[in-house]
Amino acid sequence: MITTSTVVNSVVEKLRAALARGQWRSGEMLPGQRELAEQLGISRPSLREAVIVLETLGLVRSMPGKGVVVLDAQASDSHGQSHDSAVAGASLEDVLQLRYTLEPFIVGLVAQSISSKEVGQLRLTLMDMREALDAGDSEAGVSAYIAFHEELFTLTSNPIFQSVVQQTSNALKQSAEVLRNSPEHLAERLAENEAVVRAIRSKNSAQASAEMRRHILREGQRMGIALNIPEDNLSN
Fold first, then answer.
1. What are the Cα distances from residue 173, in Å, to 66, 118, 143?
2. Domain boundary residue among 74, 108, 128?
3. Same structural domain for residues 144 and 197?
4. Residue 83 within a domain
5. Disulfide engineering: 49 pairs with which of 68, 143, 146, 150, CB 3.0-4.6 Å?
6. 142 and 117 co-located in one domain
């Protein structure tokens, strides 16, 4: 039986080989998800999971609403080594503390300026989570969960945030194995993220921030981690 992880690993190797031989050069965009998935003969969730792996390797970067851009692998290696080593040594509590610090503020900003098209993209990613949940596909569920949060990260227009947000994205991927090991929690994650999007769609910054804080605190509870945070009243 061919597992999802086997398919993803195969796709990652195919795409790495294509990038190495210059099929797509630095700064170019990969074909759209539907086109590329058809070319490779795989599902879009499997392709998205492969892209996440390539992002972790510093070979590409997802840009919601635009596509996936090819990065300069050598430049990524030289500038990102210290950051990557710091993230690699982070604990799950470190990851959640970073997320709790940034994500509620980010969604509050996003709620103030998001376009209807961007809301639509967030909802499409949540639909991917829903489809993964219905299919019992935990790999696709994790992929869509990470993609949803990465889309939120990139919607902030503050240029200073972009470098810091990349660390949040890397940290989120660092905890992906824990997410895969708890597929029974996907329905809860989906419901909590849907609440975030409802608040964003309503342009309610305070509510969006509060829903994201609740989500991250509950992630901690699901992982058996009690976050040490100053706003204890928000845990209820």
1. 21, 22, 9
2. 74
3. yes
4. no
5. 143
6. yes
CATH number, domain with residue 112: 1.20.120.530
Are residue 64 and residue 120 in the same domain, yes or no? no
User: CA-CA distances (angstroms) from residue 199 to 42, 100, 103, 126, 212?
Assistant: 34, 18, 14, 14, 10
CA nearest neighbour of 31 among 4, 73, 70, 59: 70
Q: Assign 60 to helix, strand or coil.
A: strand
Q: Terminal CA-to-CA distance of the chain, rounded, Å?
A: 44
Q: How far apart are CA 122 and CA 180, in angstroms?
A: 21
Helices 159-174 and 44-56, interaxial angle, to 10°? 110
Range of the domain at 201: 90-235
Q: Match 């305070």 to its residue by tokens.
A: 206
Tell whether 84 is covered by a domain. no
**CB contact set of 31 (below 8 Å; sequence gap of 6+):** 39
Q: How far, in Å, CA of 24 to CA of 12, rounded? A: 15
pLDDT at residue 236, as a whole number: 44
Q: Which residues pair with 63 in a beta bridge?
A: 67
My answer on whether 94 and 64 are in the same domain is no
Contacts (Cβ under 8 Å, ≥6 apart) of 30: 24, 36, 60, 67, 68, 69, 70
pLDDT tens-place string over residues 13-44: 888 888 888 888 888 999 988 899 888 888 88
Judge if 103 and 41 occupy the same domain: no
pLDDT, one tens digit per residue, over 71-97 is: 876 544 444 444 454 445 567 788 888
